[in-house]
């Protein structure tokens, strides 16, 4: 596969050859073909970059949603633990064990 740099060099050579002999239709055609090939390669590279960034953003969003769910789970556990404490400020407190043991 031809790289973008190779296509840019080919375009530069074709443009320079056409500039030297502007009356030659074959050189003009060669320059236009090189320009189209270069622009096509630029477009493909931009599309690949966009696809890669989109995938990265989707993965980041998924990770952030997962982290938020974890935080919400911890907050709910803390609320469950605090409810009996608020109900009975005196006497025995029966609260669930956050670590899975028996109270």
Write structural notes for this entry:
The chain is mainly α and about 100 residues long. Helix content is about 80%, strand content about 0%. The longest helix has about 60 residues. The radius of gyration is 33 Å and the shape is rod-shaped. It starts with a helix and ends in a 16-residue tail after the last helix.
Work out the number of β strands: 0
Major sheet description: none
Mean pLDDT, all residues = 86
What best-fitting shape do the alpha-carbon axes yield? rod-shaped
Order of helices and strands: HH
State the separation between the terminal residues, measured CA to CA: 68 Å
Q: In percent, how much strand structure appears in the residues? A: under 5%
Compute the CA-based radius of gyration. 33 Å
Helicity range: over 70%
Sheet/helix structural class? mainly alpha
Number of helical regions: 2
- Low-confidence segments: none
Topology, element by element:
Blueprint: H1 4-20, H2 25-87
In short:
This protein is mostly helical and 103 residues long.
Key features of this structure:
single chain, 103 residues, mainly alpha
């Amino acid at each position: 596969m031809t790289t973008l740099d190779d296509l840019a060099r080919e375009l530069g050579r074709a443009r320079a050859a056409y500039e030297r002999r502007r009356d030659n239709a074959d050189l003009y055609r060669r320059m236009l073909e090189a320009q189209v090939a270069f622009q096509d390669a630029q477009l493909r590279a931009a599309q690949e970059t966009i696809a890669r960034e989109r995938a990265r953003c989707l993965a980041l969003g998924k990770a952030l949603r997962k982290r938020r769910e974890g935080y919400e789970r911890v907050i709910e556990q803390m609320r469950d633990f605090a409810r009996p404490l608020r109900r009975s400020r005196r006497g025995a407190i029966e609260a669930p064990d956050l670590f899975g043991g028996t109270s």
